[in-house]
């Protein structure tokens, strides 16, 4: 994720008074220090062991495969590449088309805001696991898994964009103008550029999500990537990674607004065949299979007599012990958030033109591009093969990916700062006294904004064997216990919403909204 530089440089146009800056600096120092202290206190309770016998030799083989890829040995990279693009393109398009009308009522409906928060709190992979039971390994599963959370995200972000528009053009419209007329004639012309920019960014996120859908069996690049890594075919895995990086790097060319409609229409041929779903079976899954049996068979008499409560308690007693999973989810989320902060603080000065030299800028920026482009799940999967199963690969993946995103944004913000002629001559003094006070508020705002994303990713890392809530969700689907899986999904969504609410309260003033986090 990236941020709009105009948002992060607002303090340059309206510099804070000295006592306000001093107060904000002390608050940020307490926040950062609190995160680091909490991490140091809780690290002894985390399983950070390295169980692999030859991690360095395995790393050497992986790097050799990345340096000498073997694209000729791939089974069907073209088909997987087309499906990856098609799923992302149509999932993003459908999400935007559904989210736009929802955005018009978003700020006026608390119920709508709550529903959207719950939908986007569930990761695309979990939606895919749920929808696989209905639509199987088909394009319908992939499209719905991306569309559902993206529609909720678009509704929130588009609504935030509309709320930040100048009010003068809206007041110039006749008083009897409907909500649709106000949007079409006043809001849309002003908001079009920001909405289009965020939609392009969300399409890039959709490409990463589409790749990850291969981890649940859908035939995208991620399916072949996981198979190649798991079987030790690192030359093929290296070729697939290079294809993925080239796909993201060349997005400004093949993702041009004049090319995308042609791609969207052409990709329809590759999305079939569509599944033949029985309405009866679909209704049974929605109304019966995903709910606890006592709730499905509930009646007014059972509610009054207490049999319903007794049955639900008996049903809940068969759930796995969730306290360790919840603890690992929160612990890994805290470690990932704090690790992201430390990575960002270390790397953004090296990528800045005011602090780093030409060599450090190019090398650090290259590293940041690699880390922020590779999804956390893929990073964690590679590190898991190197280090063995524990929280350590998941922690490193979360910290490296999210820290690289924040460092990239901070470096870009720092590069746009015009330093005064009287600035300190030493680079360390320049960073300490001139750059850091301006960059730190935006860095902490972005860090706390990413906290919800980190918790979402923490849950899905359980699919790799890390004992978070995602581990039990994946196991429940594997054993066809859909009621248990759905209950754990709801619990995960509530946990994500709670973390996001806490992060919003801690976020510094001059909050960076989600629509500003675009590349």
Characterise this structure.
The chain is mainly alpha-helical and 519 residues long. The chain is 75% helix and 0% strand. The protein has 25 helices and no strands. The chain has helices spanning 5-8, 10-13, 18-42, 55-67, 77-106, 110-121, 124-135, 139-163, 168-171, 179-212, 221-230, 234-249, 251-254, 260-271, 279-289, 293-296, 300-305, 307-317, 322-351, 358-373, 376-387, 391-415, 427-460, 469-478, 482-506. α8 packs across α10, α20 packs across α22 and α21 crosses α22. It is globular, with a radius of gyration of 24 Å. Mean pLDDT is 83; it is low at 1-22 and 510-519.
Mean pLDDT: 83
Largest sheet: none
**Unreliable runs:** 1-22, 510-519
Rg (C-alpha, Å):
24 Å
Topology order in helix (H) and strand (E) letters: HHHHHHHHHHHHHHHHHHHHHHHHH
Provide the fold topology.
Layout: H1 5-8, H2 10-13, H3 18-42, H4 55-67, H5 77-106, H6 110-121, H7 124-135, H8 139-163, H9 168-171, H10 179-212, H11 221-230, H12 234-249, H13 251-254, H14 260-271, H15 279-289, H16 293-296, H17 300-305, H18 307-317, H19 322-351, H20 358-373, H21 376-387, H22 391-415, H23 427-460, H24 469-478, H25 482-506
């Amino acid at each position: 994720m990236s941020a709009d530089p105009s948002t992060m440089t607002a303090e340059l146009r309206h510099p804070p008074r000295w006592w306000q800056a001093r107060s904000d600096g002390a608050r940020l120092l307490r926040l950062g220090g609190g995160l680091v202290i909490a991490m140091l206190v809780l690290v002894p309770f985390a399983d950070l062991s390295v169980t692999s016998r030859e991690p360095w030799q395995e790393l050497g083989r992986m790097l050799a495969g990345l340096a000498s890829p073997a694209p000729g040995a791939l089974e069907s990279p073209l088909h997987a590449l087309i499906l990856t693009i098609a799923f992302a393109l149509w999932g993003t398009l459908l999400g935007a088309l559904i989210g736009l009308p929802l955005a018009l009522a978003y700020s006026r409906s608390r119920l709508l805001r709550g529903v959207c928060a719950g939908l986007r709190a569930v990761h695309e992979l979990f939606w895919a696991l749920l929808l696989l039971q209905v639509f199987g390994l088909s394009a319908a599963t992939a499209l719905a898994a991306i569309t559902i959370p993206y529609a909720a995200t678009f509704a929130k972000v588009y609504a935030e964009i509309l709320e930040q528009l100048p009010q003068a053009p809206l007041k110039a419209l006749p008083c009897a103008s409907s909500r649709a007329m106000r949007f079409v004639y006043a809001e849309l012309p002003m908001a079009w550029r920001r909405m289009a920019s965020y939609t392009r960014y969300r399409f890039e996120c959709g490409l990463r999500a589409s790749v990850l859908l291969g981890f649940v069996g859908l035939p995208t690049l991620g399916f072949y990537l996981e198979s190649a890594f798991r079987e030790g075919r690192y030359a093929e895995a290296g070729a697939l990674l290079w294809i993925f990086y080239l796909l993201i790097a060349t997005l400004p060319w093949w993702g041009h607004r004049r090319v995308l409609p042609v791609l969207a229409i052409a990709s329809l041929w590759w999305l079939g065949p569509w599944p033949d779903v029985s309405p009866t079976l679909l209704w049974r899954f929605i109304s019966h299979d995903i709910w606890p049996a006592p709730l499905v068979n509930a009646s007014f008499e059972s509610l009054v007599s207490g049999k319903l409560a007794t049955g639900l308690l008996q049903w809940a007693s068969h759930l796995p012990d969730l306290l360790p999973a919840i603890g690992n989810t929160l612990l890994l989320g805290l470690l990932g958030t704090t690790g992201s902060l430390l990575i960002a603080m270390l790397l953004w000065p090296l990528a800045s033109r005011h602090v780093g030299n030409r060599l450090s800028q190019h090398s650090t920026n290259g590293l940041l591009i690699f880390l922020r482009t590779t999804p956390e799940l893929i990073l964690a999967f590679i590190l898991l093969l190197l280090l063995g199963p524990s929280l350590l690969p998941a922690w490193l993946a979360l910290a490296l990916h999210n820290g690289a995103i924040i460092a990239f944004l901070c470096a870009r913000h720092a590069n746009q700062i015009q330093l005064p002629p009287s600035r300190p001559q030493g680079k360390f003094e320049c960073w300490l006294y001139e750059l850091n006070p301006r960059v730190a508020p935006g860095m902490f705002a972005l860090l706390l904004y990413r906290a919800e994303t980190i918790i979402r990713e923490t849950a899905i890392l359980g699919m790799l064997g890390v004992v978070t809530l995602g581990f039990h969700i994946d196991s429940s689907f594997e054993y066809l216990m859909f009621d248990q899986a759905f209950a754990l999904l709801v619990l995960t969504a509530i946990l994500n919403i709670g973390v996001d609410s806490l992060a919003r309260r801690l976020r510094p003033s001059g909050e960076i909204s989600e629509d500003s986090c675009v590349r």
